[in-house]
Amino acid sequence: MLISDILTPERMLCHVQATSKKRIFEYFSKLLAADSILTSHEIFDGFLARERLGSTGLGYGVAIPHARVALNHVTLAAFLQLEVGVDFDAVDKQPVDLLFALMVPENSRQEHLDILALLAAMFRNAEFCRKIRETEVCLDKFNLLTGWQAPSVLL
Q1: How far apart are CA 64 and CA 57, in angstroms?
Q2: Is 66 a catalytic residue?
Q3: 110: part of which helix (H) or strand (E)?
Q4: Which one of 71, 117, 120, 151 is separated from 111 by 20 to 30 angstroms, measured CA to CA?
Q5: What is the DSSP letter of 82?
């Protein structure tokens, strides 16, 4: 699955003022509900339930909130870049300013894991994160996200 299969420019917000996980989940829930049969409240509850199991803060200023939600039939993603990082209980204790959220059908366990692995590789790439942060225009960030390819390893 490609990022362009799950993310649209309409589900991206840049330069967002948010001061808490709750507010971030509200933003994501509204963005995702616009393209889902689920309500923003149902999506919000899914993110909150998953976050209670442990932080989705990856480190390096990045978080990947995600939820598998019943009655959801399609994988959708949304992206936020915050003006100022917030505490997300990340493993490195650093504030988070880049957030990529996933909403996955409840029965799509392998797809969920595959996308999380792709996102983890993407956002652990320091050069990629630098480009995302330095790019001013949200549509240009979308193009970076959808155009990303893992660096090839020479043996």
Answers
A1: 6
A2: yes
A3: helix 109-123
A4: 151
A5: E
What is the CATH T-level fold of the domain 9-141, as seen in this structure?
Mannitol-specific EII; Chain A (3.40.930)
- DSSP, collapsed to helix, strand or coil, labels residue 52 as helix
The pLDDT score that the predictor gives to residue 152 is 57
Distance of CA 36 to the CA centre of its chain: 16
Q: Any idea how long the chain is? A: 155
Task: Give me the amino acid identity at 137.
Answer: V
- Taking phi over 0 as left and psi of -120 to 50 as alpha, with beta for the rest, 59 belongs to left
How would you write the pLDDT of the chain (155 residues) with one tens digit per residue?
A: 789 999 999 999 999 999 999 999 999 999 999 998 889 999 999 999 999 999 999 999 999 999 888 767 889 999 999 999 999 999 899 999 999 999 988 777 777 788 888 899 999 999 999 999 999 999 999 999 999 876 655 44
Residue 113 DSSP label: H
pTM: 0.91
| Among 15, 66, 73, 112, the one annotated catalytic | 66
Report the half-sphere exposure of 148 (CA within 13 A, side-chain side).
Answer: 26
CB contact at 8 A, 64 and 96? no
Residue 67 sits at φ, ψ, to 5 deg, of -155, 140
